[in-house]
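Sorry to interrupt, but I need a hand with the structure work. Please put the record directly below this note.
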Amino acid sequence: MVYISPVTLSPANTATGLPRQMTNDWIDNVIERMLQSNTSQSVKNLANLIKANDDKITKVVAGIDKTKRDILIFPIN
């Protein structure tokens, strides 16, 4: 059985400079880190593919309820 429900994610981290998880700023930050010179070409290709299709991406968080053996999917607005 799959449940869909709201979820709370980690807030911005002032120590690391990371924005709140799964916000557009956070995703942009991850993409920029994927494009750094120390990453493989395949990671860079994936980052560019994500950037080119960002309007088609639906953000979700998935988890597992181990006690019920359920997959949980939480859409992010």
